[in-house]
Amino acid sequence: MDNFDVIVIGGGHAGVEASLASARLGKKTLMLCLEYGTVSLMPCNPAIGGTAKGHLVREIDALGGQMGLSADKALLQIKMLNMAKGPAVYSLRGQEDKNLYHGIMLDIVNNQENLTVIDKEASKIVVENGAVSGVETKDGSKFGCKCAVLATGVYLHGALIIGDYVKSSGPSGFLPATELTASLLELGLPIRRFKTGTPARIYRDSLDFSKMEIQHGDDCDRFSFMSEHNIFEEEPCYLTYTNPETHRIILDNIDRSPLYNGTISGVGPRYCPSIETKVERFKDKERHQIFVEPEGLHSDEMYIQGMSSSLPHDVQEKMYRTLPGFENCRFAKYAYAIEYDCIDPLSLYPSLESKVVKNLYSAGQVNGSSGYEEAAAQGLIAGINAARRTDNKEPLILGRDQAYIGVLIDDLVTKGTNEPYRMMTARAEHRIMLRQDNADTRLTPIGYEIGLATEERYNRMLEKKAMIKKILNFADTTVPREKVAGLFEKIGEEIPQKTPTFRDICRRPAVNYKDVMEFVPFECSGEELNAAVIEMKYEGYLSKEEAAINEQKRLESKTIPADIDYASIKALRIEARQKLAEIRPLNLGQASRISGVSPADIAVLIVALRQN
Amino acid sequence: MSTIAAISSPIGTGGIGIVRVSGQDALKIADAIFVFKSEDKNWQPLHMHFGTFNAGDFSDMGYAVYFPAGKSFTGEDTVEFYLHGGARIMKGALETLISKGAVLAKGGEFTKRAFLNGRMTLADAEGVIDMINAESASALNAAYRLMDGEVSKNINAILERLENLIATLEATLDYPDEMEDEILPVLPDEIDCAIDSVEKLLATAKCGKIAKYGLNVVLTGRTNAGKSSLMNAMLKTDRAIVTPIAGTTRDTIEDSLEYKGIKINLVDTAGLRSSDDIVEQQGIERAKKAINGADIILHVISAEDGVNDDVEYPGKLVYTVYNKCDLSGYKDNDNNVYYLSAKTGDGVDSLLDGIASMYEISASGSGEIITSERHISALYETKNALLSAKSGINGTIDCTLIDLRKAYDSLGEITGKTATEDVVDSIFRKFCVGK
Fold first, then answer.
1. How far is A537 from chain B (nearest CA, A)?
2. Domains recognised in chain A with CATH numbers
3. What is the pLDDT at residue B244?
4. Does ipTM exceed 0.95?
5. Which of A55, A419, A579, B427 is the most interior residue, by most CB within 10 Å?
């Protein structure tokens, strides 16, 4: 029997990050995937990033993960979203060449030192004395390990649903995993069923793009702090709209939708509604946006974002053909919904280790999340923590004030979720601190410390930090009036009586870093200057936020012993006792976020801890 | 850490009451309120300073002690004030601390901080659990009482308004493509509207104070206008000494009556005139202080001579009272002007009705009034956050939302709501977003 330090089950976005992290930390790692073709597959939209998700990619990158670097190499276009809404919510979104992305990742995985990839279906987690000791595959092979990471995506008992037609399947026609769930149930993991869906793919040559609005990317940063500003061949996207005829066809056939006739039992995400859900729920909305996106450079197929559906094929054909430019469209793949087994994330520690089985970690959709980026972020953390466990090191747990990754995992394991969880900026209460521009200064020191971020990456971050400091030191120097006259005229303001300092100028709402570049008397990059300008503009808000964070930190730093017996703390209300016993928070901060645990309960807990 | 404040002595009237403020701004807040009377120039650690506690609408002489971080119960900078006991002074002092930036301490919070700062001993623990339980039980009862009430309806209406606003703005941040078609609310109008609603609720808080502690009515006017006679007539006793000699009343005289279920605290003052008499001068000083704390001022004029000094009482509700009308003839009462005779008692009940109506007017708007210090503190925090949102309106939405969410969370503390979850739910309920 071959022995490994870490076995990762699954080769999707979570599995790949977990495998690479573990192998890069020097652990002998095995990745089990159903088929080589499923490695880093993008079975839904051909894009990476977007609001909050773009933050996750930057953070994965800053820690030394792979997603950002690979995404930059497979770009079809890139855009910085929310430019008018403030730096806390600037978000990168890139259209990606799916095949190219898959190819790049497969290449990296195959060439990674310490990493073995085998295309076998895991069928059983072997546990001895409550801890993982190995994994068996369907063909009867056995592999020993110290830790395992579950990253099974939507493959566990995957069931594809179109209309009244249900078929056991993984996404895009790949095989489902049929045996592992039974093993997980036997181990006592809480299993439930979620649902997601994807729209149709339409042949490019059957669409009339002249009837749609063309959409280009812009010239902005790349995902990875380490990427060159590469040149790539841009592919535009297109925008079209549904109309009353589309809506009529959908409503006429609503009883044939499995979402409405009861065929689908799984819980679907609110933020990926099918077109029938949108039309049914928002009846007064006259039209819905439909984005037409290329699946790859010169790919034959276009992804029709906004038209997810599980209606039967004949209805799909009718409704798609009502869209302007779609009159003669031909289907490459029909839209479908997919149901799958996943774990209740409340059964996980913030390290992503299971509370039920020691040394068993899990990441991605199997934890009830949704999205490539959410999966990759968890995969990275699960991989890091599995590797660290083999050395008996403390797990890496990022705080809600440190990273979107921290918010994502804390939400999952502390609050739980009743639908596939999507990252949103609205979920990050400290988002003004968690910007995409400072992901490196926030997280690269941590990535470097644990041995994942390279020396080169670390030094680059240090240089950037030093330069930001240099600019801030210069900020109180006045800028001669004749130099700033042009800028003030441009923003339509009078030059103040008192000659403005560099800081004064930067703090004006209408001014951005490009406007003030010429006033800096030394060489610096746009990225560095931008970071410094943001620091100055948002100084007041940042310091307010820091005060709030410090307050919370003191609770986070008070750990709760793992063996605490909540039932014995009679002063706690019964509901609080039950919730605390179920979630078993690691510290008082996590305890305070559990729904049903009041501030008074926390005070009682504090006193009880003190007594023990 | 925020700076917290609470009344630390037992509820009820005592000779001395203690109010305490703890946290990094404790000294700054204390400095803004307490004026040393002695030679002291600076706060000395663990030193009892004598001085004046200025509460805005009243002031009190007392002592203050500064316990520096590490030498206090909580382990943080703490200032304790030893003032005259009594609910009114204690509550007033606490409100002043809150208005200067402290937040009301939650049940067990001083103890919690003491623990977090490593200042609590094992011996304290047992008693503290009981205390926290008692406090949370009473807070729970209070919350329960609040659930069906008018106050709760009003608060929920503001919360709903804020939630809509925040959810809409958040949706534009998380779904920039899909929200382009949506009509966005006019931000300054929405914020103004929310501030207005919060202020209305705060106004009922004032009314709540009246319900609990009574309405303060101060009699002023020239000497010999018959203030003391009027007081006696209202009390229906010979409480104040009445003589024809101008300046008979030297000290302020206080007494209370209940009229139509409302407690009215009457304060008779020395007539305001320049005097060489040291005793009378002191009395005039006290009169000025009483005026500061008044809810209603009865400016008494002798109708016999009709001499009016035209004294102004900025920001105060003033009733002009013509006394001795039995000698000069009665007229119909007009808007805040009363004609009566203290001697015969004619017209005195009309004045009392007028006083009582002031309470009824402020209470009638909502039917229920805010009395909890915790709620008042939350409302002030909400208001401050909204004002901050308003002042930053030219900045970017991400920053405005920090203030709006703070406002929501502060107000939500009353009803137990938090922004993040509610807002995310609201986004999906209201808008067709997601692809």
1. 9
2. 2-195+342-450 (3.50.50.60), 201-339 (2.40.30.260), 455-542 (1.10.10.1800), 558-611 (1.10.150.570)
3. 77
4. no
5. A55
